[in-house]
Amino acid sequence: MRGLLPVSMEDIRAAAHRIAGRVVETPIVSSASLGEIAGVPVWLKLEHHQTTGSFKLRGATNAVASLSPEERVRGVVAASTGNHGRALAHAAKAQGIVATICMSRLVPENKVSEIRRLGADVRIVGQSQDEAQEEVDRLVREQGLVMVPPFDHPAVVAGQGTLGLEIVDASPETATVLVPLSGGGLAAGVAAALKGVNPKTRVIGLTMERGAAMKASLDAGRPVQVEEVRSLADSLGGGIGLDNRVTFSMCQALLDDVVLLTEAEIAAGMRHAYACEREIIEGAGSVGIAALLAGKISSGGPIVAILSGRNVDMEQHRRVINAEREAFEEDGP
């Protein structure tokens, strides 16, 4: 690792202690089908089995547990593409704290309704994560709410890093870990944990071709803004913030590569998860499987793919699954 990073191994271990009993230690299972494709053992980290259906509960729980008594009274607020909002609403409710979640109109309704069910105040603002963030900034400025960002916050990154510790404990021989990449909270935290134990472990970020803000920023050498577009991997949408203070530098220092995936490849990952692994996952959660199926990953040793979330609209999931069946019926056997 290059230089001092915003989140240390000590921060991640402290987060693990802080959130113990409040989040699920998710299973890690072998995939024979993907192992045959990759030519090395492949393990799937089933983080979509987390209480709120995604890894985001780790970071949100650590951040909320780190608040001072005065901050708890003020309440928390965040912008979200869905999964962070759900996690923060859950973590705040569990500790008797009021949560406000700001989202753009691109966030699927199934994610919005679940956040409302958890009792959060939901604000739908604009057509992008950046516009939702503007509403967050206004609420912080005018109402004194405490912002808990979806990724660019040391406590959030440390919480996500606890997933990396679980991978090390379950599969210490792992050579390569595949991590969904959006704002970089998961990738930064997991990479810090893995490389804190074994610097030779490769960590590869995976994201969609269209609207990949962290990839564009890494290529430019600084945070840049990209247009947010619809994708099967909707949880990977949104910018990283032009004033990014934590995740950009960590991803720049710790990620070994970033792989882009087409919408068709993401859909194939979702279908494989359902047909071969018997798992229902959202597009963002399927990118590790998708990259392996597409032949975009090579490794000299065991691979772990993180299945990061399951909060998919089931009608969309049915359309993705049935698309291959319809093509088969049209083309014939």
Radius of gyration: 19 Å
- Sheet with the most strands, sense and barrel status: 6 strands, mixed
Structural class by SSE content: alpha/beta
Rounded to the nearest angstrom, the distance between the terminal CA atoms is 51 Å
Describe the structure.
The protein has 333 residues and is α/β, with parallel strands linked by helices. Helices cover 46% and strands 13% of the residues. The chain contains 14 helices and 10 strands. Strands 1-2-10-7-8-9 form a 6-stranded mixed beta sheet. Strands 5-4-3-6 form a 4-stranded parallel beta sheet, sandwiched between helices. β7, α9 and β8 (202-208) form a beta-alpha-beta unit. α1 packs across α3 (56-65) and α1 crosses α8 (154-170). The longest helix has 18 residues, at 314-331. The termini are far apart. 55% of the residues are buried. Mean pLDDT is 94; it is low at 327-333.
Topology (SSEs and partners):
Layout: H1 9-19, E1 28-30, H2 32-38, E2 42-45, H3 56-65, H4 69-74, E3 76-79, H5 83-94, E4 99-103, H6 109-117, E5 121-124, H7 129-143, E6 146-147, H8 154-170, E7 176-180, H9 185-197, E8 202-208, H10 213-220, H11 247-254, E9 257-261, H12 263-275, H13 287-293, E10 303-306, H14 314-331
Parallel strand pairs: 2-10, 3-4, 3-6, 4-5, 7-8, 7-10, 8-9
Antiparallel strand pairs: 1-2
Short description:
The chain is of the alpha/beta class and 333 residues long.
